[in-house]
Amino acid sequence: MSIRQHPRPTPPPPAAGGMRAVDWDAVRADFPLLARHVHGKPLVYLDSANTGQKPAAVIEAVDGFYRRHNANVSRAVHALGAEATDAYEGARRKLAGFLNVRHDDLVLCSGTTFAINLVAYAWALPRLQPGDAILLTRMEHHANIVPWQLVAQRTGATIKVAELREDGSLDLDALFAAMTAEVKLLGFTHVSNVLGTINPVAAICREARRRGIVTVVDGSQAAPHMALDLPALGCDFYAITGHKMCGPTGTGALWARREHLQAMPPFLGGGEMIREVRFEGTVYNDPPHRFEAGTPNIAGHVGLGAAVDYLSALGMHNVAAREAELLAHATEELRKLDGLRIIGEASEKAAVISFLVDGAHAHDLATLLDLEGVAVRSGHHCAHPLMQSFGVPATCRASFAFYNTHAEVEAFIAALRKVRGLLA
């Protein structure tokens, strides 16, 4: 028995040029939270790089699992256990299709932080040694820095950093020059959560593979916003976070090349990750279950499967095109404001704008915008080294998703003008 299917957007008919016409107002209506008011003002939610909002189909999928199918996975022969297992493994298959990978090469986990730690402890820790190096970029999220620091401390490896250009793009010449013989692993983000910079993953991975360097890609900010074909990217590991792609919190996945998964020891020990346990020794399960000890977030991943259905029905090319329009609109309007500085203006960029206003602290600016109903992020965005390179302690960040509107862009700009007057 399978989980009941929940409503999702009907694929729109093709339009001229091969793109599909989408009723974005109808899409927005699928997201209950976006109808809220805060401080007596209509909510303008511009913090999707932090977490994406959830369509009703995802909320109903989680609710439906707990109401009708709740049981543990892979541990019971009764009907509910079979239904729960089918739903959980079905979500794995949906996500694998979304990424164009084999489902048994996909480890379900709590998100990118867990996924990168899994690579750090199960792949890097047993292999790295003094004299080896881990290469990272200046734009990395802390989740793609701190695990490697911990591994380096325990193995004697060192960390090298590839720097950025002034516009926030990665200096590829410097990156390739840094791929020296001692570098065994390269960790880098597909899309910067602060700058919005989209890195040329395929070109970077091609150069790394030519030099025998294993690549770990943080895909948290890419999976919600663009079509992905992981084999075409050529990386060794790719991590995603479900809650940024309209799924529940505490969900995500690590994709890895099969040869790596088969060679890696378990990260956590417990139930499900074993074939046979004796006090004399344990035989571990095959990947990916070898890395999924304990009871997983079953309902959350069922919800993530519903989110994948939803995004797939919209079409990720449509999502990317919509967000590009919103980014262009917001950038054009922000450039008209005196005393406002945009941090990161790479030519290839996702719908993320970090900015500062002369004379205003980022936290003060965000607090006052919130009183106008506009939710933006303020702070270092878990990217201290990047902030340091730009010489700032924090920025405000407006991040857009396909469910935002051009009217919200105008409301954001109007609120920003008002707030600047209050701070003057």
Brief descriptors of the model:
Aspartate Aminotransferase, domain 2; 424 residues; alpha/beta; 14 helices; four-stranded antiparallel sheet; Aspartate Aminotransferase, domain 1; disordered N terminus; seven-stranded mixed sheet
Please give the structural blueprint:
Elements (H helix, E strand, L loop, with lengths): L23 H5 L8 E2 L2 E2 L1 E2 L10 H13 L10 H21 L6 E4 L2 H13 L8 E5 L8 H10 L2 E5 L9 H7 L4 E7 L11 H10 L3 E5 L11 H4 L3 E5 L10 E5 L1 H6 L10 E5 L2 E4 L13 H17 L1 H19 L5 E4 L8 E6 L4 H10 L2 E2 L1 E3 L4 H7 L4 E5 L6 H18 L1
Helix pairs in contact: 2-10, 3-10, 11-14
Descriptive notes:
It is a single chain. By secondary structure, this protein is α/β, with parallel strands linked by helices. It has 14 helices and 17 strands. The protein has two domains: 21-46 and 315-423, Aspartate Aminotransferase, domain 1 (Alpha-Beta Complex); 61-312, Type I PLP-dependent aspartate aminotransferase-like (Major domain) (Aspartate Aminotransferase, domain 2, 3-Layer(aba) Sandwich). Helices cover 38% and strands 17% of the residues. The strands form five sheets. Strands 4-10-9-8-7-5-6 form a seven-stranded mixed beta sheet, sandwiched between helices. A four-stranded antiparallel beta sheet has the order 13-14-17-16, covered by helices on one side. It has a two-stranded antiparallel ribbon with strand order 1-2. A hairpin with a 2-residue loop joins strand 11 (274-278) and strand 12. The longest helix has 21 residues, at 79-99. The chain is globular. The N and C termini lie far apart (63 Å).
